From TrEMBL:
It comes from Rhodococcus chondri. The chain crosses the membrane at residues 6-25. It is found in: Cell envelope. Pfam families: Redoxin (PF08534). This is TlpA disulfide reductase family protein. Keywords: Cytochrome c-type biogenesis, Disulfide bond, Membrane, Redox-active center, Signal-anchor, Transmembrane, Transmembrane helix. Residues 76-217 form the Thioredoxin domain. It comes from the Bacteria. Residues 32-54 are annotated as: Disordered. Gene3D superfamilies: Glutaredoxin.
Length: 220
């Protein structure tokens, strides 16, 4: 066999060995376990609360917190960016259609979380304002973290009895176009539209009253 023939045979043998190595080399785990359907697979939707925060686990915390009941539907036609958004009432676990319970009345929505320091100072202020406003303005908290157990614990610690809804997936924040900060207060008109988004903590009931009068035209 000539030297040139030997070289060609050696090259061919090397190509075969490389092909075998490629064939048996382990592929990426995700690629082998994900079916090739030609379509993208959507990520799981974020949950409004943790799976361990079920009715049984939350029952004693709800009793201790003794929150006021969430508002009932007013009978007015729901409208605005919150239409179709249903969340769990923190006080008793019932379903709350936000647009339906806020329709026909000016409202103050306060977005907060159990770990938020400024929220701890602001929530008692909002509770004071809610008692002062009575039926003239609906005041509702929106807990924007999946840990509902800690939310109830914090409200008990703060002696705050405001009604609220659980929104760990941040649907209210997205619907009203609020910035990704806490606390945020959203002032809603009776027609369901957003009058003002205020990404700031309030330090007195008078401050809340002034904002509501300025943007909603309600003096209390």
């Amino acid at each position: 066999m000539s030297p040139n023939s030997a070289g060609r045979w050696s090259l061919a043998a090397l190509v075969v060995v490389l092909a075998l190595l490629v064939a048996i080399w382990p592929r990426d785990r995700e690629a082998t376990e994900t079916p090739d359907t030609g379509t993208a697979v959507a990520a799981p939707a974020p949950a409004d609360r943790r799976s361990q925060d079920d009715a049984q686990a939350l029952a004693p915390l709800r009793t201790a917190a003794a929150l006021r009941s969430c508002p009932a539907p007013t009978g007015a036609s729901p409208a605005g960016p919150l239409t179709g958004l249903t969340l769990e009432c923190v006080s008793d676990g019932s379903a709350v259609d936000l647009a339906a319970v806020l329709a026909g009345r000016p409202a103050v929505l306060n977005l907060w979380a159990w770990w938020c320091g400024p929220c701890a100072e602001e929530l008692p202020v909002l509770d004071d304002y809610a008692r002062r406003a009575g039926d003239a303005v609906t005041v509702l908290t929106v807990h924007a973290d999946p840990n509902e157990s800690n939310a109830l614990g914090r409200l008990t610690d703060y002696s705050v009895r405001l009604p609220g809804v659980q929104d760990g997936s941040g649907r209210v924040q997205a619907a009203v176009g609020a910035p990704p900060v806490l606390p945020v207060t959203v002032l809603m008109r009776p027609d369901g539209s957003v009058a003002k988004v205020l990404p700031q903590p309030f330090r007195s009931a008078d401050e809340v009253a002034a904002a509501v009068e300025t943007h909603l035209g309600v003096a209390v």
